[in-house]
Specification:
About 55% of the residues lie in helices and about 5% in strands. By secondary structure, the protein is mainly alpha-helical.
């Protein structure tokens, strides 16, 4: 997930939360629009939640049977000549990079990183 994708997800979330929370009351007749930092205090980071769900899905795929179509397609690698230039990132590489990053991981995530197939 690129930074642009993350911002495209966060933007509507902030807009909705801003509408729910409403403006900040300064005095009886004045109101001020809440900043992004104030809005973020009202909810969890949606990107973290998405990445946790993706990690759970990846664990589900790893635990599935070898003849499962989802597992076969996820582990499939294209053959042939690569295009010129920087290679595109794919879903599996991004998931592995996210799981390998050193942040507060749960025991389940640490086990998944340890058990990941090395390609």
């Amino acid at each position: 997930m690129t930074k642009k994708d993350e911002e495209n997800i966060r933007r509507p979330e902030r807009k909705i939360l801003r509408a729910i929370v409403g403006p900040k009351k300064i005095n009886e007749y004045e109101y001020k629009r809440r900043t992004n930092e104030e809005i973020e205090e009202y909810s969890d980071d949606i990107i973290k939640r998405i990445k946790v769900q993706i990690a759970k899905w990846y664990g589900h795929i790893l635990r599935s049977e070898e003849n499962n179509n989802t597992k076969i397609i996820t582990n499939w690698e294209a053959e042939g000549k690569l295009r010129r230039g920087r290679p595109r990132s794919n879903w599996l590489k991004e998931v592995r990079e996210d799981l390998a990053r050193p942040r507060g991981k749960s025991k389940e995530q640490k086990k998944m990183v340890k058990d990941m197939p090395k390609n």
